[in-house]
Amino acid sequence: MRKYMYVDTCIWLNLFKKEGDATKEIPYWKIAEEFFAQARRTQEIKVFVSTIVFRELSYKLLNFKL
Question: Alpha-carbon distance 32 to 49, whole Å?
């Protein structure tokens, strides 16, 4: 069964900025990385992103170095 997932700005920022909480066992960015890896491996997960998310990411990551 195919799953459709909308990924909000916070998830992308967790991944790009390697964000997380030191008190948690797994950093947020690692969870996001595993989710996207699983989505790439399988045809069952389709990821959607809105144009507003793209705009917000371009604004927030304008001077960010990956």
Answer: 14
